[in-house]
Amino acid sequence: MQPRRVLLVVAVAVLTAGCGVPTPAAPPSAKEVLAKPQQSNLTDAHFAVTGKITNNGVTVQLVGDGALVYKPKPAGRFKFTTTVGGQTLTIEEISVDGTNYGLTPASSKWVSTKSTSGIDPNAFSGASDQKYIGEETLPQGKAWHASAKDRDGNAFDAYIRESDGYPIKYVETQTGGQNITLTFDHYNTGETIKAPPADQTKPG
After folding, report:
1. 3 state DSSP class of 123
2. Residue range 127-169, pLDDT digits in tens
3. How far, in Å, are 22, 82, 148 from residue 59 at the CA level?
4. Distance from C-alpha of 133 to C-alpha of 160, rounded to nearest angstrom
5. CA separation for the pair 67, 45 (Å, rounded)
6. Residues 6+ apart with CB under 8 A from 170
7. Thinking of the domain 28-203, which architecture would CATH place it in?
8. Which end is more exposed in the chain, N or C (fewer Cβ atoms within 10 Å of the end residue's Cβ)?
9. What residues are paired with 17 via a beta bridge?
């Protein structure tokens, strides 16, 4: 390499460093994105539920709401309504301390089942097939977009806000292709989730 060429290369390197030309940051991994909410200062988050499910060949729309509690320990709840045959049905679920409690029109009491999966923050940590997709600009802010499967094998997409690591939206794809969307609208409101009273539950 000629002396002039060497000096030019050195000069460019010095000027680039001196001018503080930023080096693009590597995108986070899917595992890192999915872990952001539990690593943030988030204590609880409320969400709206929309979507559709198919049961016995009949597809129905559902709407409702719920919440996830991140600290001091993971827990979750949701409640949605749907209309089947002209009749409005309400379904509720609570997940706390490794137990899921479900309340449906078929029972006057909450049915409790021990489970390693449920509607709590751990359900969205991604048990398998984690994939970083890219960045999205949503009304709530710029978000990382990642996909994965939960412990039950259901695929979901996660949209995590870059500014604070809070979840903006989860879209879960059920068997058969139906989607259930959780859209978050309130954070850190002091939400607490407890198991139903013992006299209102029965084992599943």
Report:
1. helix
2. 899 999 999 999 999 999 999 999 888 899 999 999 999 999 9
3. 51, 10, 24
4. 12
5. 6
6. 47, 124, 156, 157, 158, 159, 181, 182
7. Clam (2.50)
8. N
9. none
